[in-house]
Design brief:
Elements (H helix, E strand, L loop, with lengths): L2 H10 L3 H7 L3 H8 L5 H31 L2 H53 L5 H9 L6 H15 L4 H11 L3 H16 L3 H55 L4 H30 L6
Helix pairs in contact: 1-4, 2-4, 3-5, 4-5, 5-6, 5-10, 6-7, 7-8, 8-9, 9-10, 10-11
Length: 291
């Protein structure tokens, strides 16, 4: 535990249980997000950080409101209220952050899952033991978040001496992806029944790959709509605006400088910014963006 965590515990340890009752899912969210904090430690850090933010905000807003209102009582009350609201909002976001991380991890796992499961099925087809197949897969980095989940199983087996069945149970409960959790439980059931796990994984991998192909097909149609909107609203609209402003500029000389400024902002700031945002949106939307 770091010095900051110990300080948070010392100052706000008595209030931790109260907030844990308000956020009962925090422990599970931290585990699924892969954050190495206990729920008590995380709540203490959240309270201390929010309190420090309040301390920093209070004098800043007091000065601002003092200059604007020139009244001590008004500036104090408004700065206190504003700082408190921001601190509470920050605390809520801080506590919800693991949930956001777990959702992001689940998305990335699901995107690489069809390829990772088929890869594991191929390894198991050579009749090597399950733990050995998982160890081989854990060294393949291209599956990113999925690989991290597999590495967690190997860590439980090697460093904590947990048997493969218990390690699979822990992985199924720990992963933020519902699809991967279902697969870990399925592998565990087949392992205990003595069935051929590679057959099960090939079937699951085939189903996931068909689902992935469907998403690609749907995305290709959606992308064509996005491109049409982009070309019509941004490119053609911008060209039309430049032509129109050029005509206005030729008619009246009094607004020429303002029109040139608007054209400069449109061409060198607005269009590049919107284009970058569009590229980022398309990149995030496409299936397999997390691979």
């Amino acid at each position: 535990m770091s010095f900051y965590s110990r300080l948070a515990f010392k100052l706000f340890g008595n209030y931790i249980s109260f907030f844990l009752d308000i956020f009962p899912e925090l422990k599970k969210d931290l585990k699924k997000a892969g954050l190495k904090f206990s729920s008590q430690e995380y709540i203490a850090i959240a309270i201390l950080t929010s309190f420090l933010l309040f301390i920093v905000e209070m004098p800043i807003f007091s000065i601002i409101y003092g200059i604007l209102s020139k009244g001590f009582l008004f500036s104090f009350l408004f700065s206190f209220t504003t700082s408190l609201i921001i601190a509470i909002f920050f605390f809520y976001l801080f506590v919800q952050y693991p949930k956001f991380i777990s959702r992001e991890r689940a998305r990335k796992i699901d995107e690489s899952l069809p390829f990772g499961i088929l890869h594991l099925a191929t390894i198991l087809k050579s009749k090597i033991p399950l733990h050995r197949a998982l160890e081989i897969l854990s060294k393949i980095k291209i599956y990113k978040e999925f690989t991290k989940d597999v590495q967690g199983i190997i860590r439980d087996i090697k460093f904590f001496g947990i048997d493969i069945a218990t390690a699979l149970e822990r992985a199924a409960e720990r992963t933020p992806s519902k699809k991967l959790s279902e697969i870990w439980w399925g592998i565990l059931s087949n392992f205990r029944a003595g069935s051929d796990i590679s057959v099960y994984l090939r079937q699951k991998g085939s189903d996931l790959m068909n689902e992935y192909r469907k998403k690609i097909y749907e995305f290709s149609h959606t992308l064509s709509v996005y491109i049409e909107i982009y070309l019509t609203a941004i490119i053609i609209g911008s060209i039309f605006f430049v032509i129109l402003t050029a005509i206005f500029s030729a008619i009246g000389t009094s607004v020429q400088q303002d029109i040139i400024t608007l054209q400069f902002i449109l061409i060198f700031i607005f269009i590049p910014t919107v284009s970058i945002a569009f590229i980022y949106f398309v990149k995030r939307s496409q299936p397999g963006a997390g691979i």
